[in-house]
Amino acid sequence: MKKKLTFLGIETSCDETAASIVQENDDGTANILSSVVSSQIKEHEKFGGVVPELAARAHVENIDFIINQAIKDSNFKLEMIDGVAATAGPGLVVCLSIGFNIGKSIAGFNRKPFIAVNHLEGHALSAGLEKKIEFPYLLLLISGGHSQFLIVNGVNDYKQLGTTIDDAVGEAFDKTAKILGLGYPGGPALEKFANDGKKDFFKLPQPIINKGGCNLSFAGLKTAVLRESKKLKGKLDLKKNLAASFQNTVNNILTKKTLVAMKQFKDFSKKKKSNFVIAGGVAANKTIRKNLEKIAIENGFDPMFPNPKFCGDNAAMIAWAGIKRFKLNLIDDLNFKVKSRWALDAKAPFMKGPGIKL
Ligand code: KG4
Ligand code: ZN
Question: Which one, of 207, 251, 245, lies nearest residue 229 by Cα?
């Protein structure tokens, strides 16, 4: 019988300390033997955002326990694994280094192959944890640090169609939640709060909606929320309406830009039907899931979302990306260094700051 590939994955790029053991099934899907995620909400809540020094300290305090727990939960012996995959970027260098260096040590001591994983590739392949996907597919990656439309041609083969020129979608949710005093992390809190608000009550701007292809912009929307928030006079119903209107505007922007990205994808791929994958922390938002699912079906795509527990940061997606890269012989040297910036498509133009062309 063919031996099944089994990898240890480690993730510490931001405020989640995570480890996981993943095995590849014969049909090419994943068997997640364990997935342990320790969130640092308590550490950062009083500051309303991630404080790098505190995040790094919490990773140092937790990482060995989290890795041991993942190994224990999996009932798999560390000596039996086929390789170690750890997130090498993009992210906070002080945080990345902690999981990455432990990963390198484990691989080195156990003489196992080591894979340095791009966190964004982890998200990009995460829908494949539960269901086999065929390449190429259209990907919308929406997280706290990134918002991108990409064509996923295969493992290690990405073409960026569009990205945000300022804030990421998750960042816009977090900043809006902070303005409205909803706490941290903002995305889930805002979604809950917006539930019984009137989504058409406030007319908010949709920056670069008719230009810039499928590039995105959210900074102007957040500023408009700030302006409107000053006129609420403490009225709870108005505050709920503002949260709902913000979420609705994000949905309208994502709809319009998704249609542009779908057209670009169709011009590129002659496949009759392809998947539209929506991944990253914000893909857990129910209104966004419902909205993009509808757009996908109406436009001849098969929508695919990772299970909400694999939308946010986790190490199963890192182990999985590690397995996929290992199969292509993309094995890294133990001298590999973490990177704060690391685009999936190295040829894509940098779209932030003055002088960008839309
Ligand atoms: O992928 P992720 O866990 O970390 C990054 O790689 O950034 O994404 C975290 C982001 C945060 O901005 C968080 O507020 C947002 O995802 N998020 C949500 C929801 N759940 C998480 N945003 C909107 N609605 C949600 N339900
Ligand atoms: Zn992430």
Answer: 245
